[in-house]
Amino acid sequence: MFVDQASVYVKAGDGGNGLVAYRREKYVPLGGPAGGDGGDGADIIFEVDEGLNTLMDFRYNRHFKAKRGENGMSKTQHGKNAAPLIISVPPGTTVIDEDTEEVIADLTTQGQQAVIVKGGRGGRGNTRFVTPRNPAPDIAENGEPGQERNIKVELKLIADVGLVGFPSVGKSTLLSVVSAAKPKIADYHFTTLAPNLGVVDTSDHRSFVMADLPGLIEGASEGVGLGHQFLRHVERTRVIVHVIDMASMEGRIPYDDYQKINKELEEFDANLLKRPQIIAANKMDMPGAKENLAIFKDNLPEGIPVYEISALTRAGLRDILFAIADLLEAIPKIAPEIEDTDEEVVYRYQKEDAPFEITRDPDGAFVIYGAKVEKLFKMTNFSSDGAIRRFSRQLRGMGVDDELRKRGAKDGDTIRLLEYEFDFVE
Predict the structure, then answer these.
(1) CB 3.0–4.6 Å: which of 66, 278, 328, 357 could bond 42 by disulfide?
(2) Is 384 labelled a binding residue?
(3) Which segments constitute the Obg domain (predicted)?
(4) 248 in a known ligand binding site
(5) Distance set, CA 390 to CA 26, 55, 377, 380, 385 (Å)
(6) Is residue 284 part of an annotated ligand binding site?
(7) Taking the model in full, what pTM does it have?
(8) What is the pLDDT of residues 2-14, one digit of tens each?
């Protein structure tokens, strides 16, 4: 089964907890604090594997959770860092954050990796909190929570040549006779339910990858028909071969077919019309094809090559394959418009979110929320009085106490943070 789109939940590993410990050994006077730091949680990394050509693995496993780091140990021993969880994906995979629609990664080459979510750092042990005023602290941090996000994984097949055209114009037949691919061929629309790939070898020992895409119809860019689901695969092709039924077996006018398909490509992505395009005038062995071709060429703008072929009888295939191979040699491996948009970003400024926000529930309780304050809360060990006092100082330093007073909080009012409740104390 061909799967080219999936929604997935990914959760990186949490950091291990730091430890509160003291060194008590014979002949070691003043051993002092000896709690080690926790290990870092595992990242989740996507890696390109050329042996894959579908997102089938994501069909049955839509949740990925990486391991957490090991907790800190006594004698100032650091907990073990968790090994990253590496998930193999096919070349051409794009990863998008479902909530922000931001493109996280665009993976195209063998072995290329991208960190999708980052593991949390390990919590610090009590040796990290030693000060002259407090030489034996009883404070340790919990591990930092790992990142989590809902992502959309899309596959855009990487092929040198893409076959486009209306249903039943002979795209699958053409692919089957020029390569070893065996797509399903039948005399009804939408026989091709998923893209098919084939490696084409020319008689002069050149080769390229050709993709047969499901047939497009008018309105495909707006979701009509079946081919709209696979329009994204055209984006990766370097040359577009437009297959046209020149015998007009379905009763359509060939030049109208050409205009309608190009319109759908343009509405999906205007850059597609900048790609080199070759017209394969198919079914030239059928009656009326020669006359239709003459009319077609009269309407066609200059400079667009047209090759007469018959996929059924294999007439004209050698010439069009040579023309495709020549064109591929003359253009860059990546289309210029893709190269410009995929420039590596050295630094991307992101506006920092407010450390906290305060709202009020219907029952009168004050609710504190925000990524920074929630992370501090999760990293605090509330079984330790010292850690609780430290958390209170951190909240005061962030301005939470002052903001609560401005909003009318009084002694004894209820304060909520995540699923926990506190009393406001002046």
Answers:
(1) 66
(2) no
(3) 1-158
(4) no
(5) 33, 47, 11, 9, 9
(6) yes
(7) 0.72
(8) 677 889 999 999 9
